[in-house]
């Protein structure tokens, strides 16, 4: 029998974990498959036991927003199990790498929270972290242009890199349309922002400073031609001044 492995289950006995494992429906998903689709009415809590999944949200107009990636040991769809409401009909869960999933019924998950103080506090801390994360993302969307949100995202990716220094970092980027979904922008804007960042980095390395291009100021020689020269060498006779 397969045994659940998750941080929320710490403090439970082996018998309790075995009972919870037997209450779950186990299934393996290959990379690229859909776990939860549009308007899926399931209320089961998903325990990721291997692989990685991605949660994406879709607006009514069809624009995609990538919420985040969930590695092994994380939980999915527990919000609808807690408030007993239908999950968001526009959210989808897609497998990034081959995944093993254990689906626990919502009633059994609520019973677990009531029986285990550790599980309850673990989930409360996760909900508090979710609120903080959404608050920070809302602040970034409201106050920071896409270029600076992209810089912050690159720095976040480089935090856990052991080879990153103050002058150099090497990070693995997703595709431009995926970055646009994560940062709340368009693919074209992400491509332009990356180009500007690379240009700025190359200029700083060469010791250059970017300045706005100015027009050349008007050149004054001091000469004043009151009467233009007669280039055609013609003579003009007039009886009086020109009149309209």
What does this structure look like?
It is a single chain. The protein has seven helices and six strands. With 244 residues, the chain is α+β, with helices and mostly antiparallel strands. The longest helix has 27 residues, at 117-143. Strands 1, 2, 3, 4, 5 and 6 form a six-stranded antiparallel beta sheet that branches. Helix 3 packs across helix 4 (117-143), helix 5 crosses helix 7 (187-206) and helix 6 packs across helix 7 (187-206).
The third-level CATH topology of the largest domain is Jelly Rolls
**Helix amount:** 25-40%
> What is the total tally of β strands?
6
- The CATH architecture of the largest domain can be named as Sandwich
- Specify the structural class: alpha+beta
Low-confidence stretches: 208-213
Please state the overall shape, judged from the principal axes of the Cα atoms: elongated
The total domain count is: 2
Structural Rg:
32 Å
List the main descriptive attributes of the protein structure presented here.
alpha+beta; Jelly Rolls; Arc Repressor Mutant, subunit A; 7 helices; 19% strand
Write the layout of secondary structure elements.
Blueprint: H1 14-22, E1 25-29, E2 34-36, E3 45-58, E4 64-71, E5 75-76, H2 78-83, E6 91-104, H3 106-115, H4 117-143, H5 146-158, H6 176-183, H7 187-206
Antiparallel strand pairs: 1-6, 2-6, 3-4, 3-5, 3-6
Helix pairs in contact: 3-4, 5-7, 6-7
Summarize the structure.
The chain is an alpha+beta fold. It has 2 domains: 7-130, Jelly Rolls (Sandwich), CATH 2.60.120; 146-206, Arc Repressor Mutant, subunit A (Orthogonal Bundle). Helix content is 38%, strand content 19%.
């Amino acid at each position: 029998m397969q045994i659940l492995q998750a941080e929320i289950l710490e403090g439970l006995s082996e018998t309790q974990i075995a009972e919870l494992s037997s209450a779950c429906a186990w299934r393996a998903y290959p990379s690229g498959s859909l776990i939860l689709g549009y308007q899926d009415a399931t209320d089961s809590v998903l325990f990721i036991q291997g692989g990685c999944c991605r949660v994406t949200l879709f607006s009514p107009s069809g624009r995609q927003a990538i919420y985040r990636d969930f590695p092994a040991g994380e939980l999915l769809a527990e919000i609808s199990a807690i408030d007993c409401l239908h999950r968001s009909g526009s959210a989808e869960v897609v497998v990034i790498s081959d995944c093993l999933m254990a689906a626990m019924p919502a009633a059994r998950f609520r019973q677990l929270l009531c029986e285990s103080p550790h599980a309850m506090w673990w989930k409360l801390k996760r909900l508090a972290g979710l609120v903080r994360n959404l608050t920070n993302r809302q602040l970034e969307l409201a106050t920071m242009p896409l270029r600076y949100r992209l810089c912050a995202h690159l720095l976040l990716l480089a935090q856990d890199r052991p080879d990153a220094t103050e002058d150099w970092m090497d990070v693995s980027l997703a595709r431009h349309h995926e970055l646009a979904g994560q940062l709340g922008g368009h693919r074209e804007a992400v491509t332009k922002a990356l180009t500007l960042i690379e240009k700025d980095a190359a200029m700083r390395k060469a010791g250059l400073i970017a300045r706005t291009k100015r027009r050349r100021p008007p050149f004054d020689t001091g000469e004043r031609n009151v009467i233009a020269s007669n280039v055609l060498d013609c003579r003009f006779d007039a009886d009086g001044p020109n009149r309209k």
